[in-house]
């Protein structure tokens, strides 16, 4: 029985990884160009996997999301590619980019594979297994917020001058621009993630409970 559980979890991990690849390769599905930095839906399967499969596999899929993002930013070059790929120099410069891009690419994405799991387990214990749907929604919402907030703040602290040059702002206006992306782009992303997590993760958790 334990071996079957391991096999099933491996299959489910491969399924989530396939979804990430599908979202990344279909235009306007995984990466949606609606602002200086693309909106994304790739965080959704990572959040769901975190809750269903646990933080280790969630972190693995989060790192996979980061790798996909880095490869895409390297191949499809935009003025913001240097933020996510160490192989692309800031706009107007020559040579390679900075290793700091790896921090932005991987750290937030790994976190979204970890944070939702621990929040949901804490919520589950606190509510004594009641209101599971609400817990899943908030966990998904939190995962989406973590992704956008951590990415954008790392952009500000690691690439403030380069980012300011791209958007044509300076001083406090740079962080105002960061906040506008967090609210205008990050909040809708988080709400969609919360709704998707509440729907899909609930079904998968019930299915796993029946198998055990």
Automatic annotation (TrEMBL):
Bilayer-crossing regions: 12-34, 46-68, 75-92, 98-120, 132-157, 190-208
Protein name: ECF transporter S component
Organism of provenance: Tetragenococcus halophilus
Keyword vocabulary terms for this entry: Membrane, Transmembrane, Transmembrane helix
Keyword Transcription regulation among record annotations: no
An annotated Gene Ontology molecular function: transmembrane transporter activity
Keyword Membrane: yes
